[in-house]
Design goal:
Blueprint lengths: L2 E3 L7 E4 L2 E5 L5 H11 L3 E8 L5 E7 L9 E3 H5 L7 E8 L2 E8 L3 E10 L1 H12 L5 E6 H10 L7 E2 L8 H15 L3 H35 L9 H13 L4 E2 L2 E12 L2 E10 L10 E2 L5 E9 L10 E2 H15 L2 E4 L17 E9 L18 E9 L4 E11 L11
């Protein structure tokens, strides 16, 4: 769902949460209308954007109540060229709401790269995009977006592509030619144009299908756990971040702390703070609506090497995970292996699966209780957290394993 942002001192507003598509050439009014209809009956606002590198894109969203498209500019197009490509950004808007943008070749917004939601809602999208290759990671707040918006120029506002007039010079000329052609009986020309449009649409569909097959083939060859840090390496990086973490600041005390892997060279540290006599002006992060809590997100340096390829069969992986928990006296919740859905004949099935492990460490895991995690083949931690009120340390991870009868990846033995 698209949202609207307004910044003090800037004329007009900005739309976020659009659906973006790549175009080979400047689309006609008919093509824009067709694109909107394909996306859904409520989708009617759109625009055409061309980046400085020449990448042409169309962006669409549903009509937003109480707003007019002519007063809105797409924020993703506005800020796409302001960082070295490929880059992706996560910007805190308010409360638990964030805006995610992902930009690659030609400073074009990729599919799914303009989304609004909570960190939990955005996590699977960011995870899919992470597999596309290296990224320049950018994080910030709504203030950073305001500064970026002030520096941008040359982005067209949105319009109603179903009923609104097409105001570009190119379409005005094309419309005039079309009227003349009709007046002189140019039905043949019109028929040829329709045939060409149908052929172009067919070629686009074939290109999309080919890209999907290529992505599926690459996904089958990819082994996700190799690109994720080993548990001990991740815990040591989190320990260094924790050692630098202050527990109180200007009348605000740390309420919770979360350490997550972001890239091979960075961690994401998420903190929440509780007011303990301090003032809102000194809140270490974005202030809650009641003025008594604050949240902040920051990066911390890390250096993770590729992990081993070795994983176990499902039953052996579960046994190993429970052996660690029982041997170290920690609590463990381990999900059952996800059910294998009936094959539809089109979607390849991964030979591996991932179970979720929630571990109650009780104390900072790098003080000893985390030893032995590397012995559980296929275990990769995705978060270490601390809750100050309960004095609890927890860990969350993925336990990768091979499906029954599946062949382990080459080199894993």
């Amino acid at each position: 769902m698209a949202e609207i942002l307004s910044f003090p001192g800037l004329k007009g507003s900005f739309a976020i949460g659009l659906t973006w598509q790549h175009e080979e050439a400047q689309p006609s009014q008919g093509v824009l209308r067709a694109r909107a209809l394909e996306l859904g009956r409520n989708v009617r606002w759109g625009l055409v954007h061309q980046s400085a590198e020449g990448a042409i894109q169309t962006g669409f969203c549903e009509a937003i109540a109480g707003a007019k498209p002519a007063g809105l500019k797409p924020l993703a197009a506005v800020v796409a060229g302001q960082h070295r490509q490929p880059w992706r950004g996560l910007f805190h808007l308010q409360g638990s709401l964030y805006w995610y943008i992902a930009v690659r070749q030609g400073h074009a917004v990729i599919a799914g790269g303009d989304r609004v939601g909570t960190l939990e809602e955005l996590a699977p999208i960011r995870e899919r995009h992470r597999a596309l290759g290296e990224w320049t990671e950018v994080e910030g707040t709504i203030r950073d977006l305001a500064n970026m918006a002030r520096a941008a120029k040359g982005v067209s506002p949105m319009r109603d592509v179903l009923t609104g007039p097409w105001k570009s010079t190119s379409y005005a000329v094309a419309a005039a030619i079309g009227v003349v052609a009709l007046l002189v009986g140019g039905w043949y020309w019109y028929d040829q144009q329709q045939a060409a449009e149908r052929e172009a649409q067919l070629m686009r569909q074939r290109a999309v299908a080919a890209a999907q097959l290529a992505n599926e083939a690459a996904r089958q060859r990819a082994i996700p756990w190799v690109e994720e840090a080993m548990p001990t390496a991740f815990l040591q990086a989190c320990r260094r971040a924790w050692d630098r973490q202050v527990l109180a600041e200007a009348g605000w005390t740390l309420a919770s702390w979360r350490c997550k892997p972001a890239t091979s060279t960075a961690l994401t540290i998420e903190t929440t703070w509780k007011r303990d006599g301090g003032l809102a002006a000194n809140a270490p992060g974005a202030l809650s609506t009641d003025g008594n809590q604050a949240t902040a997100t920051a990066n911390a340096p890390a250096a993770f090497l590729p992990s081993p390829r070795a994983v176990s069969a499902t039953a052996a992986a579960q046994r190993s995970m429970w052996t660690y928990a029982q041997g170290n006296g920690v609590s463990l919740q381990l999900t059952s292996p996800p059910a294998l859905l009936p094959a539809d004949g089109n979607t390849p099935v991964d030979p591996w699966l991932a179970m979720t492990a929630d571990i109650g460490f009780g104390a900072p895991p790098w003080l000893g209780v985390g030893e032995g995690l590397d012995d559980v083949a296929g275990l990769r931690l995705t978060e270490v957290s601390y809750e100050a009120a309960a004095q609890l340390w927890k860990g969350t991870g993925k336990l990768y394993a091979m499906r029954d009868g599946a062949v382990p990846p080459a080199g894993s033995q």
